[in-house]
C-alpha cells in the first residue's frame, strides 16, 4: 500500500490553498497495480467530507451525474471534494473514448456546482489515458515489484486469453468466447474453455452458473490486450460471426434473446468500428434498432476520430446527441431514430427500424421537421413555427401554424406573419402559405385554445406547452406527448395524434395508450458534457462547386434572388476598358443579378444600362494633389460602378476583374472579391445561410463555421478582408430580405 508522505501532503495542501481560477485537477499517476485507488482512499480518510467515485465501467455522462449528485448532497458552506478512481477504466465498453472524455473534459471542467467550489483529484494510468499534466500538482506512483500474472500459460491457452481480452464487455458469455477464439484462429469448444477457466482462478473468474467468464482484474485484461492485439481483419471476422449468430433469430430486441444476442447488442458496434465497417451496420435499420444509445455513441467516437461525415447516418446520430436526446428505454431511442430517419428522407432506413420488432412507445406519422447538420434550405421545409392553432371546416379540422417574419425591427418594423394550414392526419399543406399582418393571438386564434369557425365546431382537442420542466397539458386525460428536445415548443392533440411544432417545423406522432409518458420531464438542452463526436468539414455544396466551374451560375443565383434576376450584357455593351476575360465572360453568360437591400448590397446594372466608368475615389482632377497621394488606386483601372455595398460604391477594376468597395478614408482593406463569380458565389452562399431555419445554436454554428471555410476556399483574400470578416463572424444585419429565420436560438 502506498504511503502519503509529508512531501505529498504538503503538495496537496498547497493545491487546496490555490485560488479557484488557478486550481486544476490534482492527478494521481502510476501504472497498473501501483496503488492509485488506495492512495485516494487514504486522502478520503484524512478528508471525511471527500467523496470517492469509482469510474470503472461508467460512461462519462454517468460519472458527471454522480458528481452532480454528490455535490448536491455535500454539506453546505464548504467546497465539494471529489476523488475520481479508475478514470482509465471508464466506459461500458473496453475500447472506449470515455476515459479521455472524463480526463480531458469532465474532470478539469467541473470546477463549480450551484455556486460552490469543486475540488477534483483523479487517478490515471498513462498507458491507457493521457490527461492534461501539471507536474507541480500531481504524484507519480512507482510500478509494483510483483508481476501482474501469477501463472504461466501454454501458447494455445495464451491465444484463448488473448481472444477473451479482445471482447468489448468485461463479463463474456462462454458462446461469445468461442466466437472470439474462432475469429482469432484458435477454435475451442465450450467444455475446454470452461475447464481452462476453472483451472486458472488466479487469471479468470466464473459466474455462479458457469455461463460467463471475466478476467480477475482490469489490469490483467489490458495487459493481455497489449500482449495480443487484434487487427481490423480479425475484428471483421468476429463482426461477421456475431451477425450470422443473431440475424437468424426471431424479430424483437436482441437484449431479450440469448447471451450472444445480448452481447451483440452492446458490443457489435464497437467491433464494427474497429473493423472499419460501422457505416454498413448503421445503414441497416433492422440492425441499428438493436443497439443501445451508449454503444452507438462510443462506436461513433472510435470510427470517426476526425468527425462524422456530412449527411451520413453517423451525423444523424451525432445531432441527436447534440439535441440532448437521452432516452430511458430502447423503444424510446428507436422512436427517435425513426423520427430522424423519416425527417431526413431516409425512408428505407425508417422502414427497417420499424421492421426490427422493437416495441415503440410512440411513432412519427409524418414530418416536416428539419434535419440537423444540413446546410441551406430544404424542399418542403416548413421553417420555424412560432404559433399553433386549429380551425374547423367542412372537411374536418386543420392545423394552423404561423411564423413571425417581421423585418426592420430595429428602425422601421413591417409586421408580417407567414401563416399556413396543414392536414393533421397526413401533414399535407391544405393551402399555400400566406402573409398576414396579425399574429394568431391578435387574430383571436390563440395557440392555447380551440376556435369555432364558419359555423363548424372544432372537435375535442388538447393543447400543450413544452417548458423547461416538461410538458404542461391543457387536458390531462389525453395521452401525453413524448419526451422531446427543447426545440419542440408546442403541441396540439387532434384526430388521435399529437402535432408537435417548434424551431425546426412540425411533425405528428401517435402515442401508444399503454406507454407511460413522463410529462414533468424533458431532455436537457445539451449533452451533460461534450458530445462523443464532432462533424467533419462539410463539402462545398455541389451547386456552388458547379457554378464556380462555370456550370449553371445563372440558374443558381436566380434560385435565391428571383427568376430573371440576372441581366446579361451583350458583347457590344461591354466597355472597351474592361479587359479581364473572366469578368467579360460572367457579364455575358450570367449577367449581374439585380439585388436590393441584402447585406446592404444594391446591384443596379441592367441589360439596358452599360457599365459606367468612374474615377477611383480621390483621384479626380478637381482633387488636390496631396489628397490624391493618400488615395492611390490599386491599379491603372479603369473602374466601373456596379452598385453599392455596405454604404459604399462597389467598383469593378477593368484591368484585373477584382471588386473593391469605395472606402477611401475609411477601411484600410477595401477588397470585395477577386472576381465576379467568386464574389457572387460568396454572396449567394451567405444568403442561403441567412435564410435557413437552424433549429439549434450548435447547428447554426456548424453551418457558420463551414460557410467561412468555404469562402476562404473560394476567395481567401476577400474572406480575410474587413468587410467579409464582419459578415462571416455573424454581424446582425437588419434588412428587408431577412425574415429572422433563426430567431430565438439564444436559449438553446
From TrEMBL:
Family annotation (InterPro entries): SUKH-4
Highest taxon above the source species: Bacteria
Name recorded for this polypeptide: SUKH-4 family immunity protein
Taxonomic lineage of the native organism: Bacteria, Bacillati, Actinomycetota, Actinomycetes, Kitasatosporales
Amino acid at each position: 500500500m502506498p504511503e502519503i508522505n509529508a512531501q505529498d501532503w504538503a503538495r496537496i495542501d498547497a493545491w487546496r490553498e490555490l485560488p479557484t481560477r488557478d486550481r486544476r485537477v490534482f492527478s494521481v499517476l502510476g501504472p497498473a497495480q501501483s496503488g492509485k485507488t488506495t492512495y485516494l482512499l487514504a486522502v478520503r480518510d484524512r478528508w471525511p467530507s471527500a467523496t470517492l467515485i469509482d469510474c470503472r465501467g461508467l460512461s462519462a455522462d454517468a460519472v458527471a451525474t454522480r458528481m452532480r449528485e454528490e455535490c448536491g448532497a455535500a454539506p453546505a458552506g464548504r467546497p465539494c471534494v471529489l476523488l475520481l478512481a479508475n478514470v482509465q477504466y471508464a466506459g461500458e465498453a473496453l475500447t472506449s473514448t470515455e476515459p479521455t472524455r472524463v480526463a480531458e473534459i469532465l474532470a478539469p471542467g467541473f470546477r463549480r456546482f450551484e455556486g460552490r467550489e469543486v475540488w477534483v483529484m483523479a487517478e490515471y494510468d498513462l498507458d491507457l489515458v493521457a490527461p492534461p499534466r501539471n507536474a507541480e500538482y500531481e504524484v507519480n506512483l512507482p510500478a509494483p515489484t510483483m508481476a501482474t500474472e501469477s501463472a504461466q500459460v501454454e501458447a494455445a491457452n495464451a491465444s484463448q486469453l488473448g481472444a477473451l481480452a479482445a471482447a468489448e464487455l468485461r463479463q463474456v458469455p462462454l458462446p461469445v468466447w468461442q466466437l472470439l477464439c474462432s475469429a482469432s484462429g484458435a477454435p475451442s469448444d465450450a467444455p475446454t474453455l470452461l475447464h481452462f477457466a476453472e483451472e486458472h482462478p488466479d487469471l479468470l473468474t466464473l459466474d455462479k452458473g458457469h455461463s460467463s467468464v471475466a478476467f480477475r482484474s482490469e489490469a490483467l485484461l489490458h495487459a493481455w490486450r497489449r500482449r495480443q492485439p487484434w487487427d481490423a481483419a480479425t475484428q471483421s471476422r468476429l463482426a461477421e460471426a456475431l451477425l450470422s449468430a443473431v440475424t437468424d433469430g426471431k424479430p424483437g430486441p436482441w437484449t431479450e434473446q440469448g447471451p450472444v444476442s445480448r452481447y451483440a447488442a452492446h458490443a457489435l458496434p464497437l467491433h464494427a468500428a474497429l473493423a472499419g465497417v460501422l457505416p454498413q451496420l448503421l445503414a441497416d435499420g433492422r440492425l441499428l434498432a438493436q443497439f443501445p444509445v451508449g454503444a452507438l455513441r462510443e462506436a461513433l467516437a472510435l470510427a470517426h476520430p476526425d468527425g462524422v461525415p456530412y449527411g451520413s447516418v453517423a451525423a444523424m446520430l451525432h445531432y441527436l446527441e447534440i439535441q440532448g436526446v437521452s432516452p430511458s428505454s430502447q423503444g424510446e431511442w428507436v422512436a427517435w431514430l425513426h423520427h430522424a430517419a423519416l425527417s431526413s428522407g431516409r425512408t428505407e432506413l425508417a422502414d427497417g427500424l420499424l421492421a426490427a420488432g422493437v416495441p415503440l412507445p410512440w411513432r412519427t406519422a409524418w414530418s416536416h421537421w428539419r434535419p440537423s447538420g444540413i446546410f441551406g434550405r430544404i424542399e418542403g421545409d416548413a421553417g420555424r413555427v412560432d404559433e399553433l392553432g386549429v380551425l374547423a371546416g367542412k372537411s374536418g379540422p386543420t392545423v394552423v401554424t404561423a411564423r413571425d417574419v417581421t423585418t426592420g425591427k430595429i428602425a422601421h418594423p413591417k409586421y408580417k406573419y407567414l401563416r399556413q394550414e396543414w392536414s393533421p392526419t397526413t401533414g399535407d399543406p391544405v393551402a399555400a402559405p400566406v402573409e398576414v399582418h396579425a399574429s394568431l393571438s391578435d387574430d383571436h386564434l390563440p395557440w392555447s385554445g380551440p376556435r369555432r369557425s364558419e359555423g363548424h365546431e372544432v372537435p375535442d382537442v388538447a393543447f400543450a406547452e413544452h417548458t423547461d420542466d416538461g410538458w404542461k397539458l391543457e387536458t390531462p386525460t389525453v395521452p401525453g406527448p413524448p419526451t422531446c428536445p427543447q426545440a419542440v415548443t408546442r403541441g396540439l392533440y387532434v384526430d388521435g395524434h399529437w402535432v408537435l411544432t417548434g424551431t425546426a417545423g412540425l411533425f405528428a406522432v401517435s402515442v401508444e395508450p399503454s406507454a407511460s409518458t413522463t410529462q414533468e420531464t424533458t431532455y436537457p438542452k445539451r449533452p451533460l458534457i461534450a458530445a462523443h463526436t464532432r462533424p467533419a468539414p462539410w463539402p462545398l455544396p455541389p451547386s456552388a462547386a458547379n457554378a464556380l466551374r462555370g456550370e449553371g451560375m445563372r440558374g443558381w443565383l436566380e434560385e435565391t434572388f428571383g427568376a430573371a434576376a440576372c441581366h446579361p450584357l451583350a458583347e457590344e455593351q461591354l466597355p472597351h476598358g474592361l479587359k479581364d476575360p473572366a469578368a467579360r465572360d460572367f457579364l455575358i453568360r450570367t449577367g449581374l443579378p439585380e439585388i436590393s437591400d441584402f447585406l446592404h448590397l444594391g446591384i443596379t446594372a441592367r441589360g439596358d444600362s452599360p457599365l459606367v466608368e468612374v474615377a477611383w475615389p480621390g483621384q479626380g482632377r478637381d482633387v488636390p494633389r496631396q489628397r490624391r497621394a493618400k488615395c492611390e488606386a490599386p491599379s491603372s483601372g479603369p473602374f466601373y460602378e456596379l452598385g453599392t455595398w455596405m454604404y459604399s460604391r462597389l467598383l469593378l477594376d477593368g484591368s484585373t476583374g477584382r471588386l473593391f468597395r469605395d472606402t477611401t478614408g475609411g477601411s484600410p482593406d477595401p477588397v470585395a472579391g477577386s472576381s465576379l463569380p467568386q464574389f457572387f458565389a460568396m454572396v449567394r452562399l451567405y444568403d442561403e445561410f441567412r435564410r435557413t431555419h437552424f433549429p439549434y445554436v450548435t447547428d447554426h454554428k456548424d453551418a457558420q463555421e463551414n460557410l467561412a471555410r468555404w469562402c476562404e476556399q473560394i476567395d481567401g483574400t476577400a474572406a480575410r478582408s474587413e468587410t467579409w470578416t464582419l459578415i462571416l463572424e455573424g454581424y446582425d444585419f437588419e434588412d428587408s430580405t431577412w425574415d429572422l429565420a433563426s430567431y430565438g436560438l439564444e436559449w438553446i
